[in-house]
Amino acid sequence: MSTLIRTLRLRDLLLLFVGSVIGSGIFLTPGVILRQVDRSVGAAMLVWIIGGVLSLLGALTYAELAATNPSAGGLYCFIRDGFGRPLAFLYGWCLFLVIASGSVAALARAFSRYLAEIIPLSSGGATAVTVLVIGVVTAVNVWGTRKSSDLQNWTTLIKVLIIVILSAVLLSLGHHAADLPPALVSRQHGFSLLSSFGLAMITVLWAYEGWQFGTYSAGEVLDPQKSFPRAFLTGSLVLSGLYLIAVVAYLVALGPAAAAASDTIAATSIRAVLGPWAGRIVALTILVSTFSAANSVILTAPRVFFAMAQDNLFFKKLAVVHPKFRTPAAAVISLGVWSAVLACAGKFTELIGGVIFIGWIFYGLGAASIFPLRRANGEKAIPYRVPFYPWTPLLFVIVAAALVGNAVYVALRDPQGFANIAIAIGLFALGLPAYFFWHKRGAGPA
């Protein structure tokens, strides 16, 4: 029987880490974050720095888990081994129905939307482009892990290079550097400052989200005991550096007031220093970025469905490895097809965006699994130990819980938010009978 092969090197894992995170967030959210902290440049920069540190805590925790158990499925396996098969199944269930498929659908729709700024597209044409993008990344990932990883490497390098060049242009041609020092101090104090800072932290953590995808492909990484710690540490530092440089560049180009007023800060910044025509450069950058991010999800997430099927907790066909391409082809195709369905579902994709916070429930559980797994390992040698244990994983778990709690609190304050919570509860409710169905068919341990 064919099996997955270990073909991903340290370089591949590092670029997958970076490419999975950089989507459209860094091009859009800095202005939102500035508004949330009342235009305080100092507070905004602190938000970006702390967001990077918190992501680093999670990444280092996951690096230990992946190095200790480098199996296909990553996060699914951590939750399964730490807290049992039912919770792990619910994660895989939500990943398939919403988290991964919704991300691919949203990224593909973003691709078509920004392509329309370069090439005029009708509504039907935009939908066709959306489906085509999903089809292309699905086909490449069926064709071979090595080929899809090479595609990921090149697209990630291109978008990183573009971010660096854009930042350099903005820093050299911008005229608002003198406006930054007076805006460092916040005009807010006490609870008001704390509340706005917490709201901005939620936004910045969404911009940093995606690094956990690399764990899904742990079964295909060469020398995982060394590759995961090195790739996750280096990737976290690279991302934080890129984000901080880009945010400073936007501020130098626009100044704090204009930057806070923009919901498309990258495009606004480049137009301010080069003229109206330059907005297409940002559109092109986001095209590469969203395509790369969609590819990273299709490259990694099907490994979770593959692991679930191997545990007899999902369709058995998804555990089959293609005899020629050595990829979980059925799992890849199933995610691609479902993502295309969601992308064509119109307003349903907006509802999906409202329940993506479900993922953070499981990201926190994944990090928390390090505690029971450490106890289970006893005195066994662990190839890599997360620094400052238990505080590193504990802080990340607390942040994940706070993020989910705040998302629920905010969602319950408006009718659309209430609908999102109802959908989330419905997903969990559907997952329970689905688990017992597959558990009964597989007759595996509970």
Task: Give the fraction of residues assigned to helices.
Answer: over 70%
CA radius of gyration is: 21 Å
Report the total helices. 20
The CATH architecture designation is: Up-down Bundle
Roughly what is the average pLDDT, rounded to an integer? 87
Percentage of residues in strands: under 5%
The arrangement of helices and strands along the chain is HHHHHHHHHHHHHHHHHHHH
**Which CATH C-level class is it?**
Mainly Alpha
Outline, from the CA principal axes?
Answer: globular
Structural class: mainly alpha
- What is the multimeric organization of the chains shown? single chain
Count of DSSP strands: 0
Number of domains: 1
**CATH superfamily, please?**
Amino acid/polyamine transporter I
- Contiguous uncertain segments of 5+ residues: none
CATH topology: Amino acid/polyamine transporter I
Biggest sheet details: none
Summarize the topology.
Elements: H1 10-21, H2 25-36, H3 41-68, H4 75-83, H5 85-115, H6 123-143, H7 145-173, H8 190-208, H9 213-216, H10 224-254, H11 256-260, H12 265-274, H13 279-300, H14 302-310, H15 329-343, H16 348-354, H17 358-368, H18 370-377, H19 391-411, H20 415-442
Helix pairs in contact: 1-7, 1-10, 1-13, 2-8, 3-8, 3-10, 3-19, 4-5, 4-17, 4-18, 5-6, 5-13, 5-15, 5-20, 6-7, 6-13, 6-15, 7-10, 7-12, 7-13, 10-12, 12-13, 14-15, 17-19
Give your account of this protein's structure.
The chain is globular and about 65 Å long. 74% of the residues lie in helices and 0% in strands. It has 446 residues and is an all-alpha fold. Helix 17 runs antiparallel to helix 19. It has one domain: Amino acid/polyamine transporter I (Up-down Bundle), CATH 1.20.1740.10.
